[in-house]
Design brief:
It is built from 13 helices and eight strands. The chain folds into two domains: about 120 residues, no CATH class; about 130 residues, CBS-domain. The longest helix has 22 residues. With about 270 residues, the chain is mainly α. The two termini are about 35 Å apart.
Length: about 270
Amino acid sequence: MWMLILACTLPQPAGYFMPVFIYGAALGRLLGEGVVFVSSNGTIFGHQWTSVNPGGYALAGAAAFSGAVTHTLSPALLAVELTGQFSHAVPILLSTLVANALAQSGDRPSFYDALSISKKLPHLPSLKKACPRLPSTPIGQVLGVRSVQLQKAAGPAEVQCAVSTSTEAQIPVVDSHESQILLGFVLRSELQVFLHRCKTQKLEVNLDEVCTIHPTSTLLSPHNTVEEAYGLLNVAGAQTLFVTDGGRYIGHITWPEMKLILESLAAEL
């Protein structure tokens, strides 16, 4: 115990893991010896126990205690590799999982986070724990101002205005500005080619006559949560997700905008 106190209070890099590991092993060994003492007559609650190994309890206690303190599962692997007792791998892993579940069930920070908080270091808390409304916040509430959009019958002047005012790689295309029905998106590079052709060949054509309107495979609803939008950006691997309500274009979300949304939610904590 004195090693743990010393390691946590010295003004130098904390060598906390081994004291915590040893403390957990001592508690596990104490429990194991208690089970051995109770089962010394060979019978517990009417069941016959031929042998109880206190060392197994020590391993499980060391992994569980250090895993709960650090909020990690790696101590289970470390305990098995250090001792070579692969026969105890299952109880060690189970005890570490249970200890982690109990340690993370409340607002208890891990040892790493507790040090950052106590020393007043820059610390980003878990948004899901510190802001319980994150999984239930609709994306429509935090969506920014609607970006530049084009209608399919847009001419060179409208396209030039969109290219000049927007830096997005994908610009949404709607059926018309009145209906706002999303048809897909057009690439910025294609719009630049369209403008070049109109300028050099002096053409007066519409957007849908020259450029390819790419369909969108994944759409978001304004009722989807921020957490769901973040997961879709990860799974789909897309840079832009469009938000529609009944087919009508409302806005879009990109990785930079998602970062700003998360930062704004964190600033409210």
